[in-house]
Write a structure and sequence with these properties.
alpha/beta, isomerase, 8-stranded parallel β-barrel, single chain, Xyl_isomerase-like_TIM-brl, 10 strands, TIM Barrel, globular, isomerase activity, disordered N terminus, Sugar phosphate isomerase/epimerase
């Protein structure tokens, strides 16, 4: 067992204070769901059954159209399994300027409306990939120009305002591998360029580690901007290999770069403790990117992960 795994295992057994400001959930992503429709994914009723069986109360909507989009039906399906919805998720390309606003809003509004109907308070916003998530082919330059950074910042502020005014939701922008908001430098630049009254951050611990970031330091430095958490770990050995080879994110996932807690990095206990010190109510949604995966794989992992997080006080 390497040092990172020994450290995580020792923390797992140590008693911890209750994390009473953290609400734990999971998401379709932890069941290998990346797309609204895909024959490699488990059917949505199985996801709902198993996420409840694993001991979670909160879920995200996942890709729009994977779960039922009729609010009445979705309320019935979630309620009878003891589940509630914390957030919806959208992808945006606002760095491309005002020309993409109408197309962006058409997508955002349908997801935000469903999230609102389900009683959620958040909309997770993921920047568009600069490499295609299916083919791994480059779509555009990896680095934004100064003008594109301005368009990204002003577009996200507009989005934050409109989503709050029309649907009562707060946006949480998700730094993500193979997007333009990924590294510590890019995250700092984005946060410094946007209004904290309109734009918060969804800190995904796995993606931030994948891109070289320190989650605890980000929470301690920009705590007032952390509005939402995704809990995830990376396998450091696989990460070193894919980084050295420049492997795109999709193939890296298929190589197992995202792994089951507490076997990877970052250690989640310090992250949760740092979030608890913010004295704010936060969702912490478990995600383990593993598309595609065998249909019987997710449930045992989800159960073990929920038990691990309970041992951390969450």
């Amino acid at each position: 067992m390497d040092s990172a795994r020994r450290e995580s295992a020792s923390r797992e057994s140590a008693p911890t204070a209750p994390l009473d400001r953290i609400r734990i959930g999971s998401a379709p992503d932890s069941w290998g769901v990346w797309f609204a429709q895909d024959p490699l994914q488990v059917p949505w009723p199985r996801f709902l059954d198993e996420v409840s069986q694993a001991g979670y109360e909160w879920i995200e909507l996942g890709p729009y159209g994977y779960l039922p989009t009729d609010p009445g039906r979705l309320r019935e399906e979630t309620a009878r399994r003891g589940l509630r919805v914390s957030a919806g998720t959208v992808f945006t390309a606002l760095h491309r300027g005002p020309a993409v606003w109408e197309e962006t809003w058409a997508q955002v509004s349908q997801v935000a409306a469903l999230a609102q109907e389900m009683g959620a308070g958040h909309l997770v916003v993921i920047p568009s990939f600069w490499r295609d998530d299916r083919t791994a082919e480059p779509i555009e330059d990896r680095e934004l120009t100064a003008a594109q950074w301005r368009d990204l910042a002003t577009g996200m502020e507009r989005l934050g305002h409109e989503v709050r005014e029309r649907y009562g939701l707060r946006i949480a922008v998700h730094p993500h591998a193979d997007t333009h908001i990924d590294t510590e430098e890019h995250v700092r630049r984005f946060l410094d360029a946007t209004d904290p009254r309109l734009v918060n951050l969804c800190l995904d611990t796995g993606h931030y580690a994948y891109c070289g970031g320190d989650s605890v330091r980000l929470i301690e430095t920009y705590g007032e901007r952390i509005g939402y958490l995704h809990l995830k770990q990376v396998d450091p050995a696989v990460l070193a290999e894919v980084t050295a080879r420049g492997t795109p994110f999709g193939p890296a996932v298929r190589q197992g770069v995202m792994c089951e807690p507490p076997l990877g990095v970052p250690a989640l206990e310090p992250v949760l403790q740092a979030a608890q010190r913010l004295d704010a109510d936060l969702f912490a949604i478990v995600e383990q990117d593993m598309y595609p995966c065998p249909p019987d794989r997710p449930l045992p992992i989800a159960r073990r992960t929920r038990a691990f997080l309970r041992s951390c006080g969450a």
